[in-house]
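chain below, 98 aa
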Amino acid sequence: MIYIEHENSVVTFVHYMPFDEVNGLGKSSEELQTTGLLVDSIPQPEANGKIPKLFINPKTQELWYEYTDRPLSPEEEIVRLKAQLKITQDALDALLLK
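prediction:
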C-alpha cells in the first residue's frame, strides 16, 4: 500500500512504505486513513518535458497528472530573447527603409 496526503485534491505527500518497520510512519492503517488515503499504486507521469502535478479524487481514489510548462533554462531564454530581438530589429529596419 502507498500512503497519500492531499489538500484540495492536490497530492502533497507520498510514502511508498508506510508500514515498514524501519522506514515506515509507525501508524496503523486506521490512523493513516484519518489524515490521508491508502492506494495500491500511483500512475507514472508522461515524459513530455513538462512538470507533472499529481491529483487525487478522494471519493473514488482516481489519480491523474496535470502538466505545466517547465521554465526555460538560462540558455534557452537567451536564444528566445535573441530571436525576439531579431524580429523586432527586422521590423524596425523595414519601417526605416521605406
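The mean pLDDT is 94. Residues 2-68 form one domain.
thats it, cya
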